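Justification of resources, computational component.

The compute hours requested in this renewal are based largely on the per-chain cost of generating structure records like the one below. Each record pairs the submitted sequence with a full structure-token output. That output is archived, and it is also reused by downstream analysis tasks.
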Amino acid sequence: MRIGIAADHGGYEMKERLKKALAQDGHTVEDFGAHALDSGDDYPDFVIPMAAAVASRKVERGIALCTSGVGASIAANKIPGVRAALIHETFSASQGVEDDDMNVLCLGSKVLDYGQALELARLFLAARFSGAGRHRRRLDKVAGMECDCKSGLP
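The structure output for this chain reads:
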């Protein structure tokens, strides 16, 4: 699978480790930054371009990291077509894809250790959307609420 990965300084070290492990698993990993550890950087500068690549299908899924994962999740969800969630346990890493077609996994580098983060990323990437009618109906309702960012209107 072609995946995007992004992190600010808070998630930089974990991103670097995940990027290598996921490439070894056979995934093509596009790194949207940060490309160096810089305590003054800002997560939107990396997460938003990665999320835009997911929305435009340049990559199939994305992984976003920051210290807590909260900021990365907020930023990613500003992009229409992105369904990002902050995940810290195994059930939701798969279920979020299976039922909600989650396409961006957000992780907190100070909330999870590396082993947990890698397990969650692997579960997320292995999961497939069920396509069940009730799930599609719900996603259509959510997509109907997304705004045209240029006009600010739904």
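Residues 93 and 124 are 5 Å apart (CA to CA). The beta strands are 2-7, 28-31, 61-66, 84-86, 104-108.
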